[in-house]
Write a structure and sequence with these properties.
This protein has a single domain, classed as Hotdog Thioesterase (Thiol Ester Dehydrase, Chain A, Roll). The protein is built from three helices and seven strands; from the N terminus they run E-E-H-E-E-E-E-E-H-H. The strands form two sheets. The protein has a five-stranded antiparallel sheet with strand order 2-4-5-6-3. A two-stranded parallel ribbon has the order 1-7. The radius of gyration is 18 Å and the shape is globular. The termini are far apart. The structure holds coenzyme A. Coenzyme A (COA) binds next to strand 3, strand 6 and helix 2.
Amino acid sequence: MPKAKYVKDSHTIMTEMVLPNDTNTLSNLMGGNLMRLVDIAGAICAQKHSNRIVVTASVDHVSFVNPIPLGNVITLEAKITRAFNTSMEVVVDVYSENIPAGTKKKTNQAFLTFVAVDQSGRPIEVSEAIPETEEEKLQFERALHRRQLRLLMAGRLNPEDTESLKQTFFNSPTTI
Ligand SMILES: CC(C)(COP(=O)(O)OP(=O)(O)OC[C@H]1O[C@@H](n2cnc3c(N)ncnc32)[C@H](O)[C@@H]1OP(=O)(O)O)[C@@H](O)C(=O)NCCC(=O)NCCS
């Protein structure tokens, strides 16, 4: 397995200004344009962690809490939460800033899964991501549950196969 890396080693920050072509008819950033930026920021983070080509395997838990108006500056902050075998979960937080007004707020959060691949597109092993801060350790723990849920939703996992999902979905005791 490649050498383990710290979460902070692939921390990625991307900044963009919302221009007229990016907006919807209410002059706010269009959701699809935001998702494109989220995907790019997340992919850069996953590439930095794995030093590989990465592909997006899934995007989940995208929340649109506040609209982002024309002229605002958005900052996308991407961090790996956990690396598995060939896949990595990345969380992207989005902040919107009105620089002249001096205001800034968090507008979105998304969790994405990227898979490192070789030149032929075959999945390839990635290094472990080591969490250091309390927040990173919390996200590391939760990433396992999120992975199980997303693989379940994708039809790639049977709830019977994991104890935590078995309890969530069937509310059954762990021992029968
Ligand atoms: C993602 C992809 C490489 C997985 O290929 P695969 O043949 O299913 O490979 P595997 O079964 O070995 O799975 C590889 C990893 O992908 C993960 N994975 C596959 N489908 C997934 C999904 N829907 N959500 C999350 N992870 C997924 C697996 O859990 C596995 O992770 P692990 O190695 O860490 O355990 C393949 O489906 C692909 O190339 N998809 C298209 C990607 C793409 O074009 N993205 C851009 C879309 S516009």
